[in-house]
């Protein structure tokens, strides 16, 4: 039972069973609600998220450069999308 597309989301991983039943699904929804409320509380009290890794910063920098080049008409849409696919792929 895959609910949210191809990518492995936390919710898909929790529900992923060969034959899930309604009780398992309801339990997963409850766990997601608890997780969501926990995240909201952390944001309200000003907790910071995880620090970005060196690799994440590098990828973000490359994406930012591509965005700037596209906005400044240095590359066209086709080049932008192709280069972006190499960065995230």
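Sequence proposed for the structure above (89 residues):
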């Amino acid at each position: 039972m895959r609910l949210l597309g191809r990518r492995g989301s936390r919710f898909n991983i929790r529900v992923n069973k060969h034959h899930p039943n309604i009780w398992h699904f309801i339990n997963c929804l409850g766990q997601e609600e608890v997780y969501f409320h926990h995240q909201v509380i952390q944001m309200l009290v000003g907790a910071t998220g995880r620090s970005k890794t060196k690799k994440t910063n590098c990828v973000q920098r490359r994406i930012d450069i591509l965005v700037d080049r596209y906005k400044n008409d240095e590359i066209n849409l086709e080049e932008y999308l192709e280069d972006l696919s190499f960065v995230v792929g």
